[in-house]
Design a protein that fits this description.
five-stranded antiparallel beta sheet; mainly beta; Sulfite Oxidase, Chain A, domain 2; binds molybdenum atom; 3 domains; about 5% helix; Immunoglobulin-like; binds the ligand Nc1nc2c(c(=O)[nH]1)N[C@H]1C(S)=C(S)[C@@H](COP(=O)(O)O)O[C@H]1N2
């Protein structure tokens, strides 16, 4: 597999690894390095407004696998009438779909959790939007003729490795089971292009899944195998990892896989530590997204949640995408100010004030202040 320009650039700092690495060391391509190898990179806050593949966060559990393009085939097997082996050309001959979809890591914002939890310490930037081109997973499943009684569609990546804590049964592949109903939805895609160019190695070349409205763990990269099951999939990646506690009807805590992205509004034009002038109006802006729902409203608080002001939302295409919001704020009293933004979706869901520990180390969308100084 050939390395993209970005990966070549990324390789350079590794060679110079004698330089001490700080928690937020910045790579040659100015993404924030959260882990050197496997490579895990965060988009700096300000770059979220710009977008583009070069600045898109990278979250990988294992080293990038080598996938031979000449022999590449996607196999579809399990609870199906027709076992399939599809080449990239086979896929490209099917009806193609292009959609703008937000990808957010379920651990985005983890550095703000108190007390601290294990896992990569993402700030706000393990999120991004891209234009993805591929085919509907549903169309592939139609060809494979899924048998009655199918439950989960398991997507497997070519990457594999061993995890020590909790110990895996030797080397395991990254994978994720998608319930059949979600797998068939129009927003669940198997893609080969990101922003009109072939996927880069870091983002899953030659083929990956995009599950619109769901956190990133479902968007399996380096996809080589699909297995349809007649029961729920219970792999490492949706039990030990990427799972939360939910309370069943009897109030019993049950472990459930992380699924839909929760509503979130992010302040992007200001960051914690910034200073603003008293009495001078400034534009405060950011992005808001709501997973499987639509952004209905964004509100801003200049005083830690005592008062809220409605923001203007740009009328962009938004199913599974994000929207730009902004407002003019004139800081009054001098001193520290806790700024908050919150998103309300079209189903009336909003962001919680406090962290729910049942979510373990995932789905972080409680209100996190941007702390500035008014001078
Ligand atoms: N095969 C494979 N797919 C994967 C992962 C992985 O480690 N291996 N990480 C997942 C997680 S947790 C996220 S958030 C997204 C990140 O996609 P990106 O690196 O293109 O931003 O990929 C998902 N798909
Ligand atoms: Mo993730």
């Amino acid at each position: 597999m050939t390395l993209s320009r970005r990966e070549l650039l990324c390789a350079a700092p590794l060679a110079a690894a004698a330089v001490p690495l700080f928690a937020s060391a910045v790579a040659a391509d100015s993404l924030i390095v959260r882990m050197q190898e496997p490579r895990n990179l965060e988009t700096p806050l300000g770059d979220l407004l710009k977008g583009g593949t070069e600045k898109f966060y990278v979250r990988s559990h294992f080293a990038v696998p080598s996938v031979d393009l000449k022999t590449f085939k996607l196999t579809v097997e399990g609870h199906v009438e027709n076992k399939l082996e599809l080449t990239l050309d086979d896929l490209k001959k099917m009806e193609t779909v292009t959609r703008e979809i937000v990808l957010e890591c379920a651990g985005n914002g983890r550095v703000f959790l108190v007390p601290q939890v294990k896992g990569l310490q993402w700030g706000h930037g393990a999120v991004g939007i891209a234009k993805w081109t591929g085919v509907r997973l549903g169309a592939i499943l139609e060809r494979a003729k899924v048998k009655a009684g199918a439950v989960d569609v398991v997507l497997l990546g070519a990457d594999k490795g061993t995890i020590a804590d909790p110990a895996t049964p030797g080397a395991i592949n990254f994978d994720r089971g998608i319930p059949l109903a979600k797998a068939k939805k129009d927003e669940t895609l198997i893609v080969w292009n990101m922003n009109d160019e072939a996927l880069t190695a870091a983002h899953g070349a030659p083929l990956r899944a995009i599950v619109g409205g769901w956190y990133g763990m479902a968007a399996v990269k380096w996809l080589t195998r699909i297995v349809v099951l007649d029961r729920p999939h219970n792999s490492f990646w949706q039990t030990f990892d990427y799972s939360i506690w939910i309370r069943d009807a009897a109030g019993l805590p049950q472990l459930a896989p992380v699924t839909a992205i929760q509503p979130k509004a992010l302040i992007i034009s200001l960051a914690t530590g910034d200073a603003v002038d008293a009495g001078k109006g400034i534009i405060v802006s950011g992005k808001a997204w709501a997973g499987e729902n639509r952004v209905a409203k964004v509100e801003f608080s200049p005083d830690g949640g005592k008062s809220w002001i409605g923001a203007a939302i740009r009328d962009e295409k938004q199913d599974f995408g994000w929207r730009t919001w902004s407002l003019v704020w004139t800081p009054a009293a001098k001193g520290p100010a806790k700024l908050l933004a919150r998103c309300i979706d079209d189903k009336g869901n909003t962001q919680p004030d406090k962290r729910d520990p049942d979510r373990r180390s995932y789905m972080i969308n409680h209100l996190i202040p941007t702390e500035v100084t008014v001078k």
